[in-house]
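Let us practice reading a record.
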Amino acid sequence: MVTASSPLTRQEHQLIHAAVTEVERSTAADLDIVVVRASDRYPLYPLIWAAFAALALTTLAVALRPAMSGRAALVLQLSIVIALMLLFDWLPIRLRLVPDHVKRAHARHLAHREFAARYARGGPQPSRVLLFVSLGERYVEIIADHQTHAAVAGSVWDQTVNDFVTTVRADRVGDGLLAAIEACGSVLRVHHPAAPNGQ
């Protein structure tokens, strides 16, 4: 299954879907791909930064113009808050306002929530692997069911993630996903080969 809210072309979507279908056909496992632009909206951070910046700028304005009335200072402060909130709501800037550890925690939480939701729904195969990508947080994680996790060395998944990140840095998200799908498929064919009778 492929779920994406990302800058992938229609052709890339089709290629990724076909690659996942082939992995699932040739193995006794389900492979899920989730790509999101960001793992959260982080709505409080633009407000907090805008409020602090407005307070600092208003304080500076009052210091430079002591005759400024309280009403004028309040109008100035509100105007700055509104302007900065609009600016900070742009996703690339908003993500820069959020501490890295917070972004990582939110992305990891969403990845595990997505995996739990898919695992709870079940499927034709008890074995499941999720490749989760959150582009805004630059976060990638591969999550597997307990049996697969125990059978596959963590270094195997780490190498797949590292190769994917290298490809994404070259601005080739689609190619990175296709390579990661093939790498996951190679692992699953070894540890969860398809039944000889195709069932």
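A brief commentary: Helices lie at 10-25, 44-64, 70-88, 91-97, 100-121, 146-151, 154-169, 173-191.
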